[in-house]
Amino acid sequence: MFIFNNYPTICLIFYIYFVNVGGKLISRGPESEPPVYEGNTDTKFTCILNEVPDNYEWLKNGITITPDEHYNVTYGKRKTTLEIDKVKCTDKGYYQCKVWKNGKPEVSEKAQLRVIYTNCETYPICEMSKSVYEQCEMVYMTCITEKKSPPDNIEFNVEYLDAERSKHLNTTCQCGNGTHLWATSEFTADPDLDNTKIVCKISNNQFPGDVGYCNKSLVIQSSTTTDKIDDRVMDETATPDTEEVTDSKITTETPTGKQEEETTDDETTDNKTDDNADKYTCECNNGWIIFLLIIIIILCIILIICFYFLFSKIKFTPQTNPENNSAIELSETST
């Protein structure tokens, strides 16, 4: 009789402890809202839960949000809410709630927050060490983006003016802090890269909508071209009023009223220019010298190790003289 009278209660207990074991803690995750304007607009996201969690938190782009005056996290009646006060352009992204029960975490689906703004720093941000480079000079291109979990994929490419070909650049290093992630590409300013665009692309498999680009123009000029332009400008601007220029002589009036003549040797100047032409030659391929030095160092280390093991196995034992031994035996017998 007890079983039949309490049948609904027994069924409920059976469902909770046997059927719903391993069930989802989150009944309904946050939902994406229409785009909001930055400024005085507030917005919020809510997660509905099936059970009372042991702990909970909110994520933005996979990174835990620290509650403060701008981000207000609350919990009540099996739901947790994230309220964003006065939405800023930097609040755009993907939001999720994360809860724990008996040591097991569960994360909700992502809800996107789109912000309409008038003036905001968008990512990625491209920075280049200089605007104009000389041939064979090292170029440093840095791309900055927001920190996410998982982090964004940062790629560097070269876009040529003909738009029919491109070139991939290797990423030299990648670093980050609590809020940002950045990567740098280092490459040599080859003449082939003159008047091109160095493009940075960010993408993320977990956030398909977050694909961004930024670029910087690259201008490369040789040292010879730069010096010739500077010399031509100096020749055009430095023309004294009291000088009379002839084909082979320059007559200059001195403060005493006398005239002095200075001869110019065009052939000598041309010869000097030809002699100095080689110093503007750019030699970028010096890697074989470094490679040779590395090989020599490795061989020296191997020789040192071989000598060490060779001498460590040699045992120095005292040598005995047979004549002394025989003399000792005779003295023993005589006694």
What gross morphology would you assign?
flat
Biggest sheet descriptor:
5 strands, antiparallel
Overall pLDDT metric: 76
Structural class: alpha+beta
Strand content: 35-45%
Order of helices and strands: HHEEEEEEEEEEEEEEEEEEEEHEEEHHH
Please give the share of residues in helix: 10-25%
Total DSSP E strands: 23
Low-confidence stretches: 14-21, 236-285
Number of DSSP helical runs = 6
Rg calc: 40 Å
Termini gap: 119 Å
Give structural attributes.
335 residues, alpha+beta, 5-stranded antiparallel beta sheet, 6 helices
List the helices and strands and how they pair.
Layout: H1 2-5, H2 7-19, E1 26-28, E2 36-37, E3 43-49, E4 55-60, E5 63-64, E6 71-75, E7 79-84, E8 93-101, E9 104-107, E10 111-113, E11 115-116, E12 125-128, E13 132-134, E14 138-146, E15 153-159, E16 166-169, E17 173-176, E18 180-188, E19 196-203, E20 212-221, H3 223-237, E21 243-245, E22 249-253, E23 259-263, H4 266-276, H5 287-312, H6 322-334
Parallel strand pairs: 2-11, 13-20
Antiparallel strand pairs: 1-3, 3-7, 4-5, 4-8, 6-7, 8-9, 8-10, 12-14, 14-18, 15-16, 15-19, 17-18, 19-20, 21-22, 22-23
